[in-house]
Specification:
Elements: H1 4-7, E1 9-19, E2 22-30, E3 36-39, E4 48-51, E5 61-62, E6 68-72, H2 86-98
Antiparallel strand pairs: 1-2, 1-6, 3-4, 4-5
């Protein structure tokens, strides 16, 4: 989940189990970013998380409530995915490692 600090957002699936007649989260599994998009069903509503499937590769299918959680860094109105530190740090680290060759 701390990967979100670099890349902007990380989706994770919550796996639920029943213990002592109570529903509890047994584990949280990180999922691939490329499988998720934010889609806006209504122009006045906030974008919602959708899972890309073989039957709907463009908009995706809405995910159930309390099944996925998303760690986002600096989400904004025009960018619900967030902007991680990797956006600002890529070029300085690249030039530090490679150097500027003449």
């Amino acid at each position: 989940m701390l990967d979100a600090l670099i890349v902007g957002f990380v989706p994770a699936e919550i796996v639920w189990t029943i213990r002592d007649n109570m529903v509890a989260a047994s584990r949280v599994v990180k999922r691939a970013q490329r499988r998720f998009v934010y889609a806006q069903d209504d122009a006045h509503a906030a974008p919602a998380l959708h899972l890309l499937t073989a039957s709907d590769m463009l908009k995706g299918e809405a995910v159930p409530d309390r099944k996925f959680m998303v760690h986002r860094v600096n989400p904004e109105d025009d960018n619900p995915y967030g902007t991680g530190l990797g956006l600002q740090l890529y070029w300085p680290v690249f030039f530090k490692r490679k150097g500027i060759l003449s």
